[in-house]
Amino acid sequence: MYCSQCGAQNEDAARFCVQCGNMLRKTSTPVATDDRAWVQEALIGEYEVQEEIGRGGMAIIFRARELALDRIVALKVLPRQLTFDGAFVARFQREARMAARLEHPHIVPIYRVGQIGQVTYFAMKLVVGESLSSRLRREGALPIDEVVRIGQEVCSGLGHAHGRGVV
Known about the structure:
This protein is of the alpha+beta class. The protein contains four helices and five strands. It has helices spanning 35-42, 86-100, 132-139, 144-163; strands at 47-55, 60-66, 71-77, 110-116, 119-125. A five-stranded antiparallel β-sheet has the order 1-2-3-5-4, sandwiched between helices. A hairpin with a 2-residue loop joins strand 4 and strand 5. The termini are far apart.
């Protein structure tokens, strides 16, 4: 049996989750073991999930091809263990819809917000290039004029979002 709170597998006779202590119910939904396969199975016919390109505590990011428009996108997916929390799913979707209303050169556009089965996601423009953290590891400290330029771009995007009540 799988825990409806954290997704951990438990003995069928267990009353409480071994991972989080949540009381178990016989109707708990099983959780797949491979994130890419789990997302691909749910989004079949909509997206071709190609590879994981990032991960954090709040989301997993995949490179994918949107089949209807034949374009490459970034899919930001809520991790399985968070899909069992209805309030968190609603917050994730609400924040994505709010961000989708923003149009600014320094804010990544969001194309679609959705939920199919247990997979809650949004599709956004895939920005190709090196991350700032990778660049810092490779080059070390950046020249001050580069730091100022990056800071101005970030502040410009944040200012735009704040002016529309998002930040």
